[in-house]
Amino acid sequence: MHPVVQEVTERIAHRSRESRAAYLERMEAARRAGPGRAKLSCANFAHAFAALGEGDKQRMRDPFAPNVAIVSAYNDMLSAHQPLERFPAIIKAAAHEIGATAQFAGGVPAMCDGVTQGRPGMELSLFSRDVIAMATAVALTHDAFDAALMLGICDKIVPGLFIGALSFGHLPVIFVPGGPMTSGASNAEKARVRALYAEGKATREELLDMEMKSYHGPGTCTFYGTANSNQMMMEMTGLHLPGSAFVTPNTPLRDALVAAAPKRAVEIRDGGNAYAPMSGVVDVKSIVNALAGLLATGGSTNHTLHLVAMARAAGVQITWDDFDQLSRVTPLIARVYPNGSEDVNAFHAAGGMAFVTRQLLDAGLAHDDVMTVAGPGLRRYQTEPFLQDGKLVWREGTAVSLDRDLLRPVDDPFQSEGGLRLVEGPLGRGVIKTSAVKPEHLVVEAPALVFDDQDDLLAAHKRGELDRDFVAVVRFQGPRANGMPELHSLTPALGVQLDKGFKVALVTDGRMSGASGKVPAAIHVTPEAKGGGPLSRVRDGDVIRLDARAGRLEIRVDERELMSRPPATAAPHAYGFGREMFGWMRAVAGPAEEGACSLFEAAA
């Protein structure tokens, strides 16, 4: 192992010693209790399969016969989740082939950040993760299952399913993805038209036509944002069948992978020789592996929130310092849009996850000695699935990149460090995604322009007031202020000013996006402005220095003077779009560095 990776792993293990032991003790107690349906009264038991067909009823009469739960985030509003409509039938048929049953245990909500970006509904987005976690627990709480399959792909959905399933971590759990949509219009052309529209040089009809050519069919959006970072991490944590992440929907190979999931889930249930509970798969080393994958591929900044909360649900305590220290020794070996010009389909074709996994293992940047749903060892994930005479098989993936403009080996990376960096200073602590930022923009020093709402910044842009060097401070966007919406709609406007040659940066206690791009942005800044954090005391004209190289977030104002200023106050919280129902989550949400989660704080 690389000595820094080993050091960070040991530090996390030491920090997590008590919380991890307590979690494992709970999971072992649940395992010892046995399948819940074996303890049900006859009336309760009959309820559990009253609506099944006669064949399934006869199987279910045996309280120890394998029964697999399906928890799905299907809806046809999300292109990525529309293919999930077909999956339960495939899963049930596959379970029948091995004498098992599968039941649709429950559905969880799934909202699309692409639809709600810049809209009031985005203020529900982050906390939808916690709602999904709770809904997953509701689905599994019937305690009638030997294993579970999680059907979900996108931004908050996989983290929510992950957190919820860990409450039932004595069960084997396999995540079943749907895959990316086929490639549409080029990312360069899409970015060009978006920039023209931001400058008023393209019509709305021209913009919509381009967006429809980009987002044109079933599957995940093909850029490397949070949804596809989720899929990468499920491979690196060993919760997918190997190579599942980026196989396109509605293809024979995708259907074969879906059918294989319940069969493997039954094989690794308690009572067999290959028992692989989720509580064993998700441990300190697999979380470090997920971190390594995130950094090596320039993955989503959202996971500086989500992965912290996901790990915590398994009793594993990680911090932004762990991200930062690992980033300094993990080379960036992938450039997928918005970090590069090509999409995840090109990444998959160039070698994809099998190549990335092999590189990280060979360099000692990831742990091989882990439990996975496919068996012991992460090396299983340097293989790729294929159909051979109609049968699903796995072969070794390519050991060399098939496109070095997109994917490179560890010894010849795009950058010597990973794609994320911690920044800190008098304004607090935040993170910056450096993988898409040109070297000349990694250090920005300029006067602040302060906004308490993203719409105010966009209005200033339209009025032509941003033709200058500036650091945009967009505050009162943290979890306790308004639910921490993504501010990705700011990217085109800020990018236009950057392209004009101005020094431009963003500092915010909000989120940017898994698609954070070329504008240097210190995001998730904590303490947040609500409650009197330093951002609440910044004024227009204060000189701010964002130095991603040195990891500093400075303000050229004496700290005593800064903190003596009266803090600005947030506007009263808006109603509508269901936001009023999430007030309790905002009130108890933890800080960004602890995952901005309402569940753990409420439990405490």
UniProtKB/TrEMBL annotation:
Organism encoding this protein: Phenylobacterium terrae
Transmembrane segments: none
Source species taxonomy: Bacteria, Pseudomonadati, Pseudomonadota, Alphaproteobacteria, Caulobacterales
PROSITE patterns named among the record's database cross-references: ILVD_EDD_1, ILVD_EDD_2
Function of the protein: Catalyzes the dehydration of 6-phospho-D-gluconate to 2-dehydro-3-deoxy-6-phospho-D-gluconate.
Annotated SUPFAM superfamilies: IlvD/EDD N-terminal domain-like (SSF143975), LeuD/IlvD-like (SSF52016)
Limits of the Dihydroxy-acid/6-phosphogluconate dehydratase N-terminal domain: 66-379
Gene3D superfamilies (alphabetical): IlvD/EDD C-terminal domain-like
Annotated EC: 4.2.1.12
NCBIfam families (alphabetical): edd
Domain (Dihydroxy-acid/6-phosphogluconate dehydratase C-terminal) ranges: 406-596
Details of cofactor binding: Binds 1 [4Fe-4S] cluster.
Residues reported to bind [4Fe-4S] cluster: C154, C221
Pathway entry: Carbohydrate metabolism; Entner-Doudoroff pathway
Statement: the UniProt record of this protein carries the keyword 4Fe-4S: yes
Protein name: Phosphogluconate dehydratase
The keyword 4Fe-4S is annotated on this UniProt entry: yes
Cofactor(s) required for function per UniProt: [4Fe-4S] cluster
Annotated GO MF terms: phosphogluconate dehydratase activity
Keywords: 4Fe-4S, Carbohydrate metabolism, Gluconate utilization, Iron, Iron-sulfur, Lyase, Metal-binding
Family listed: Belongs to the IlvD/Edd family.
